[in-house]
TrEMBL record:
This is Formate-dependent phosphoribosylglycinamide formyltransferase. It comes from the Bacteria. Keywords: ATP-binding, Ligase, Magnesium, Metal-binding, Nucleotide-binding, Purine biosynthesis, Transferase. PANTHER family: FORMATE-DEPENDENT PHOSPHORIBOSYLGLYCINAMIDE FORMYLTRANSFERASE. InterPro entries: ATP-grasp, ATP-grasp_carboxylate-amine, ATP_grasp_subdomain_1, PreATP-grasp_dom_sf, PurT, PurT/PurK_preATP-grasp, PurT_C, Rudment_hybrid_motif. It catalyses: N(1)-(5-phospho-beta-D-ribosyl)glycinamide + formate + ATP = N(2)-formyl-N(1)-(5-phospho-beta-D-ribosyl)glycinamide + ADP + phosphate + H(+). The lineage of its organism: Bacteria, Pseudomonadati, Campylobacterota, Epsilonproteobacteria, Campylobacterales. The keyword Transferase applies. One of its GO terms (molecular function) is ATP binding. Involved in the de novo purine biosynthesis. Catalyzes the transfer of formate to 5-phospho-ribosyl-glycinamide (GAR), producing 5-phospho-ribosyl-N-formylglycinamide (FGAR). Formate is provided by PurU via hydrolysis of 10-formyl-tetrahydrofolate. PROSITE patterns: ATP_GRASP.
Length: 389
């Protein structure tokens, strides 16, 4: 493939809207190419703000505040990093000629479960769990009755499992209704999903630079309370399931369009593959690629944004284990013993300025040339020795 225009890094400015642990790695990768970075979030000293050239703390749900910071900095590329961003600001910025990654419409579709589910299931005809949308407790009772128990109940806008629950019987519905209000995004509408008894679930990192689409090796993962705790790569899958996964990922990412890396979440049962959701940005389960690939998901995202080639080397198998805080603190300190640092491990402490129970604070990555299982065992052992105040 030929790239005609040379990369002029000095003239490029990347603005992240959302500055957590994933954005932090994107900032580092962009800076490695000499690109100026601006990290925006709704709290001070967010992880990416600690490493970016410049940072802003604003109310990201406020249209004017988002637009003000964009107009003031005039970034070459705007990279949404969280779901809870004022979407109209992104549409307006795009109309003013700013380049939103992958594009404002894709961000709008993926930030809201109703939009992405209808796009995937109805417009693209992709296989998904059965689902209904509800806005009242009464409707929730009817929908769960239609779908059957257990069913999964989620706010239409939320992430990392916030506000999500599984109702095992009608008795659980009131609790699920109350719990949904904990969503950070929009809990005015809920999705009720059929519970898929999958054999395993994967994230298929799919990278498009609008000249080619590249798939990373599938990443297997374990979730607890709707949030990831362990991931590994590669996930051993049947050729049929892998081919179906890539086909679904290609359809959904082509449908969304634009440039960047996407995390396509899929449930696999035998050779059946169900589309679950997609992030138009690096994925938490994909942190494992920092140890398995010569170009991590963050490096690939930056390359895709810039329209650069997407080739890289797979080093072998690896795994990641998330470290979640055990308490609340305004001065969180993570204890990591010497034994965590081995020739086959990488430790990343995000530097979040405040901890609360269950907040992801760090990740341990482990490598094994041959076996994802052994890598996972190593990552679990390392994280088991972490502690926090
Ligand atoms: N319909 C379902 N059937 C079975 N399990 C499900 C279903 N929906 C969600 N889950 C489980 O809950 C996890 C989180 O769900 P989902 O990805 O929809 O939430 P999320 O809050 O958007 O998570 P994140 O932002 O971390 O990706 C899934 O990875 C899966 O393990
Ligand atoms: N599943 C999405 C995800 O992992 N997003 C990552 O978590 C950060 C928020 O963390 P916080 O909740 O600890 O502020 C986000 O900024 C992003 O980096
Ligand atoms: Mg998810």
């Amino acid at each position: 493939m030929k790239f005609t225009a040379p990369l002029k890094s000095d003239s490029i400015k990347i603005m992240l809207l959302g500055s957590g642990e994933l954005g932090k790695e994107v900032v580092i990768e962009a800076q490695r190419l000499g690109i100026e970075t601006i990290a925006v979030d709704s709290y001070n000293n967010a992880p990416a703000q600690l490493v970016a050239n410049k940072s802003y703390t604003i109310n990201m749900k406020n249209k004017n505040e988002v637009l003000d910071v964009i107009r003031r900095e005039k970034p070459t590329y705007i990279l949404p990093e969280v779901e809870a961003i004022n979407i109209q600001a992104l549409f307006d910025a795009e109309a003013e000629g700013f380049h939103v990654i992958p594009n404002a419409d894709a961000v709008n579709k993926t930030m809201n479960r109703k939009n992405i589910r209808e796009f995937a299931a109805v417009e693209l005809g992709l296989p998904t769990s059965k689902y209904e949308f509800v806005t009242t407790l009464e409707a929730l009772k009817d929908a769960s009755n239609n779908i059957g128990f257990p069913c999964v109940i989620k706010p239409v806008m939320s992430s990392s499992g916030h506000g999500q629950s599984i109702a095992k019987s009608p008795d659980d519905l009131e609790k699920s209704w109350e719990l949904a209000k904990e969503a950070r995004g929009d809990a005015s509408e809920l999705i009720v999903e059929e519970f898929i008894t999958f054999d395993y679930e994967i994230t298929l990192l799919t990278v498009r630079n609008e000249k080619e689409t590249v798939f990373c090796e599938p990443i297997g993962h374990i979730q607890q309370d709707g949030d990831y705790i362990f991931s590994w790569q590669p996930m051993n899958m049947s050729e049929v399931a892998k081919a179906k996964s890539q086909e679904i990922a290609k359809k959904i990412t082509d449908g969304l369009g634009g440039r960047g890396l996407f995390g396509v979440e899929l449930f696999v049962k035998g050779d059946d593959v169900y589309f679950s959701e997609v992030s138009p940005r690096p994925h938490d389960t994909g942190m494992v690629t920092m140890i398995t690939q010569s170009a991590s998901e963050f490096a690939l995202h930056v390359r895709a944004v810039l329209g650069l080639p997407l080739d890289y080397i797979d080093y072998g198998a690896g795994a990641s284990a998330a470290y979640k805080a055990s308490g609340d603190s305004f001065n969180p300190i993570i204890d990591i013993f010497d034994s965590s640092f081995t020739k086959e491990s990488i430790i990343r402490v995000f530097g979040k300025p405040q901890s609360h129970v269950g907040r992801r604070m760090a990740v341990a990555l482990a490598y094994d040339k041959e076996s994802s299982d052994i890598a996972l065992q190593k990552a679990k052992e390392i994280i088991g020795n972490f502690a926090d105040n």
